[in-house]
From TrEMBL:
UniProt protein name: Coproporphyrin III ferrochelatase
Protein's gene: cpfC
Gene3D superfamilies to which the protein is assigned, alphabetical: 3.40.50.1400
Family per similarity comment: Belongs to the ferrochelatase family.
Record-listed Fe(2+) binding positions: H191, E286
InterPro entries found in the cross-reference section: Ferrochelatase, Ferrochelatase_AS, Ferrochelatase_C, Ferrochelatase_N
Organism encoding this protein: Arthrobacter hankyongi
PANTHER family the UniProt entry points to: FERROCHELATASE (PTHR11108), FERROCHELATASE, MITOCHONDRIAL (PTHR11108:SF1)
Length: 385
């Protein structure tokens, strides 16, 4: 895409409850029309209840917004940052309205998800498309999205740092138990998704060329790029596993589940694991509960040394990377991009600025497809002449 003179940035995220009374309404928002069994909702509610009904994700996004603002200011880039969520206040639609009322007309969205897929990419694009249509801002407010950034060095580097520290920690834990030479393993983890979503992820021509679905292939590319940056990881066994599955039991989701995989590794002689959550950008509930509580307990039962590497959060390289992603798309007064080039540190990158027709498409129960932005086949988001 040619650079454009964007006048504001939208930080788009998932949202989470901020107190006990928010938990159930939030879960209803997330699962609306999606056939998640009630027992699963009750189960997930307990994760939030145990934390005072508060998801860590909103505080993390407030911190990320402040860090983005500081980095933009430090580089002399005059773009305000607004924050809107898909599932909890501040919601995307009033945020877009606020941006418009404040005089902005060309918005570049950065979402807190680095990969292809319905939940990771398209649902954000649709939620913008629906918000523009419902608010009457269609054709008046233009919203584009930065490319999927799984391959960006700003995303890869924090995981590499975390893996190096994690290997040192697990080796020290094993040494303290008199098992210096014991085998350990690197476990990259991401959110499981229905296999049908995985099959629909990304451009059709690319999906046909790869051995894995595009969602899994992007994660494998990230895993390899992280490993390449950590000399201490050379020769170690590693794998990509999935977590946080929901949905009806008869619907197939990506496997193996992390807890099943850990049991297999232990049975095969592994004595310790470094878990690297490459599917996530911050230490939100899926990380602190499903990994730091459940997977950690699984390891304790199996007698495995455990270390969970951090997510990018507000890591300096990640924040710089976000501003790079904005800068490569934003035109300065000379009409040229503020940052020439498109950094990439993994296979499959750099990704497209604009999604291909039917990329990650999901047909709703009533047979329709929601309006979406930032795609070749977008119906909304492009101002009429
Ligand atoms: C790919 C992916 C990401 C990563 C990309 C991204 O970040 O967007 C992600 C992130 C997150 N998922 C989150 C929370 C939940 N996800 C759920 C349900 C689901 N997630 C799915 C996928 C993903 N989810 C899917 C296919 C479902 C099934 C229902 C549906 O198709 O929508 C449910 C319902 C209950 C349950 O079934 O678990 C909850 C509560 C939170 C907030 C955590 C916090 O509060 O700190 C975050 C960041
Ligand atoms: Fe989720």
């Amino acid at each position: 895409m040619a650079p454009k003179p964007y006048d504001a940035v939208l930080l788009a995220s998932f949202g989470g409850p901020e107190g006990q009374d928010d938990v159930i309404p939030f879960l209803r928002n997330v699962t609306r029309g999606r056939g998640i069994p009630d027992e699963r909702l009750e189960e997930v509610a307990t994760h939030y209840r145990a934390n005072g009904g508060i998801s860590p994700i909103n505080a993390q996004n407030r911190a990320l917004k402040a860090a983005m603002e500081a980095e933009l200011a430090a580089r002399g880039i005059d773009l305000p940052v607004y924050w809107g969520n898909r599932n909890w206040a501040p919601y995307i639609q009033p945020t877009l309205q606020q941006m418009f009322d404040d005089g902005h007309r060309r918005v570049l969205m950065f979402s807190t998800s680095a990969y292809a897929g319905y939940s990771s990419c398209r649902q954000y694009r649709e939620d913008i498309g629906v918000a523009l249509r419902e608010s009457g801002l269609e054709g008046r407010l233009e919203v584009d999205k930065v490319r999927q950034y799984f391959d960006h060095p700003g995303f890869i580097e924090p995981f590499a740092e975390g893996l190096a520290a994690g290997l040192a920690d697990v080796r020290a834990q094993l040494a303290a138990a008199g098992e210096e030479q014991a085998p350990l393993r690197i476990v990259f983890t991401t959110h499981s998704i229905p296999t049908s979503d995985a099959a629909a992820a990304g451009p059709r021509d690319l999906a046909a060329e790869l051995d894995a679905d595009v969602y899994s292939a992007q994660h494998l590319a990230v895993a390899r790029a992280v490993l390449d940056r950590v000399p201490d990881a050379a020769g170690l066994e590693w794998s990509l596993v999935f977590q946080s599955r929901s949905g009806a039991p008869h619907v197939p989701w990506l496997e193996p589940d992390i807890n099943d995989a850990l049991a297999e590794y232990a049975a095969a002689g592994t004595r310790g694991v470094v878990v690297v959550p490459i599917g996530f950008v911050s230490d939100h509930m899926e990380v602190v509960w499903d990994l730091d509580t459940e997977a950690k307990d699984t390891c304790a039962e199996l007698g495995l040394a455990f270390h969970r590497a951090p997510t990018p959060g507000t890591h300096r390289e990640y924040v710089r990377g976000i501003v790079d992603l904005v800068s490569e798309r934003t035109a300065g007064p000379d009409g040229k991009a503020l940052l020439p080039g498109r950094a990439s540190a993994a296979e499959l990158g750099p990704w497209f600025d604009v999604c291909r027709p039917n990329c990650c498409v999901k047909v709703m129960r009533d047979g329709t497809v929601k309006p979406t932005i930032a795609a070749v086949d977008s119906e909304v988001g492009v101002p009429q002449p």
